[in-house]
């Protein structure tokens, strides 16, 4: 039960990240929001009943962190390219520069 | 627009309430006993490393490939960019410290690489430390990250190449993909982690530094 706090915090982080991902038009905001949501998923995976987290969960989260970093870097490069080509870094109708 | 944002916030609150109520009934992830039972066969004494480099080595192989693909993709999108550290002169402390941190980081990375087989540590931590040191050196105007160098490209693919070699060698011998030959698991895991650490370091440094200098 003492490990449940990680799961609860993880769910809240995931919801915050997902909300910002939908609401924020700026792509960089979306990127950061996605990272926040992913951190929430990692926390849910790392929750444990008692003692240290499960080693398989730890390995999955470690893999997930590396993949998230790789995706973030690639998405940032895409964003820079998008801003250079289109002159804007936002998605959606109500967009500013 | 505001109405839909409020609706979305309400949906998120409902989701949190639902997910928490489900989570409290779920048992915690529990494969620790299974891992501990076969740990002696894995070649290492760290449970996490045993999962990463032996029981689920295929995941780690694909992860290394993802990292390399992301770095290559980022370079393709921005082959020529602003030179990292090419702006105004670095602060005196960074200018002095940047180049001098690399040997220290190399020692730390080697320790992390070696420690991975017995305690927390391993290829990814070691690679992250290496990338940090390389980037600090670039920021201190000492030496730029050069994606157009052949050596950098070779470092980038070292991990996946080593992994694929082991995988194909196992398959050629009639064993399942990535099954280590008996008695060699520990040695091969340390060697593979070394290759992956170099790849991770190169990929992270390239992802952060972007394309080659426009100068």
Describe the structure.
The complex is a heterodimer of chains A (97) and B (215). Chain A has helices spanning 4-23, 27-46, 55-86. Chain A is mainly α. In chain A, helix 1 (4-23) runs antiparallel to helix 2 (27-46) and helix 2 packs antiparallel against helix 3. The termini of chain A are far apart. The model of chain A has no long low-confidence stretch (mean pLDDT 87). Chain B has 215 residues and is mostly helical. Chain B has helices spanning 2-25, 32-42, 47-55, 57-77, 92-115, 123-139, 150-172, 185-209, and strands spanning 80-81, 212-213. In chain B, strands 1-2 form a two-stranded parallel sheet. In chain B, helix 4 (57-77) packs antiparallel against helix 7. The chains are: A mainly alpha (97), B mainly alpha (215). Chains A and B meet through helix 1 and helix 3 of A and helix 1, helix 3, helix 4 and helix 8 of B.
Class of secondary structure makeup of chain A: mainly alpha
Mean pLDDT of chain A: 87
Task: Name the quaternary structure.
Answer: heterodimer
Strand content of chain A: under 5%
Q: Any idea what the shape of chain A is? A: elongated
Name the average pLDDT of chain B: 85
Number of distinct beta strands of chain B: 2
**Helix share of residues of chain A?**
over 70%
Describe the largest sheet of chain A: none
Please name the two chains that share the biggest interface, counting residues whose Cβ lies under 8 Å from a Cβ on the partner chain. Answer: A-B, 42 and 46 residues
From N to C, what is the helix and strand string of chain B? HHHHEHHHHE
Amount of beta strand of chain B: under 5%
Tally of contiguous helical segments of chain A: 3
Number of contiguous helices of chain B: 8
Which residue ranges of chain A are poorly predicted, with pLDDT under 50 across at least 5 consecutive positions? none
Task: Note the main sheet of chain B.
Answer: 2 strands, parallel
Please trace the helix and strand order of chain A, writing H or E for each element.
HHH
Strand line-up of the largest beta sheet of chain B: 1-2
Low-confidence stretches of chain B: none
